[in-house]
Amino acid sequence: FTRASNATVVNKAGLIETVGNDIPRIDFKDDTNGSLLLEPSRTNLVTYSNTPSQWVDNGVTHSANAIISPDGGLNATKSVVNVGVTTANTRPMATVSATTGLDYVFSVFAKAGEFEKITLDFSNTVFDAAEATYNLTTGTVIAFSGINVNQGIEDYGNGWYRCYIVATAIVTGTAALILRFDDNPTGTGVDGLYFYGASFEEGSYPTSYIPTSGSAVTRVADV
Predict the structure, then answer these.
(1) Which phi and psi (to 5°) does residue 197 adopt?
(2) Residue 43 and residue 215: Cα distance in Å, rounded?
(3) Which residues 6+ apart lie within 8 Å of 222 measured at CB?
(4) How many other CB atoms sit within 10 Å of the CB of residue 172?
(5) What is the pTM of this model?
(6) pLDDT in tens, 83-112
(7) What radius of gyration, in Å, describes the C-alpha atoms of the chain?
C-alpha cells in the first residue's frame, strides 16, 4: 500500500482523523466493522477550507472555535447574520476557477444553530447558477435548481451534516461559491449556523475532506 500524502478518514469513534503518508485508511463512516478506504487523487481548491473569515463576507460575522467540529476539536466556526441584515443578502463567499465541460463538487460540513437551512450556490454563469438547499434539522435536501446538478447530504453525527452539490462548468472562468442562509429573517447579530471544512474538487462525487490553510492541497491516490 502507498499514498504519498496525508489523508483523512472517519475513525471508530466517528471522528474525522488525519493519517500520514503510506498509512492505509480504515473507514467507519458507513461500516461499523471498518473498511479500507481507497480514493483517487483529488485537490481541494478552496484555499481556506476551515476559515470562512478569509472568504468574502456580506452581512455576516464569524466566530472561530465556537463549537466541537466533526474531527472532535474545538475548531468549527459560527457565522451569524449582522444586525438589520436579511439573510437573503447574506453570504460567506469563496472564488475558484473552473474549466468548461468538467464536473466539480462543492461541499461543506454544517450544523443548525438558530437557523436550520443553508443553500450551497454556484453563483454565476460558469455553473448556470446551480444551487441546492438543505434542512440541517431533518438532514434532507429540500430544493435544487440549475442544469447538470446532483446533490446530497450525509450524516456525520452530533448534528453535523456534510452537504454537497455537483455541477458541470458550462464555460471556463471564475466562479463564486456561496454559503447562503435561507430562512430570510432579519439579522440579530447572534443568530446563525455552524460551519466546518469546505471543499471544491474536480469530480462527480465528494471524497474525504482535504484540509487547506492558505493554498490548494492535493491528496494523492491510494494505491
Answers:
(1) 60, 70
(2) 10
(3) 1, 2, 3, 7, 24, 25, 37, 38, 39
(4) 12
(5) 0.95
(6) 988 877 778 889 899 999 999 999 999 999
(7) 17
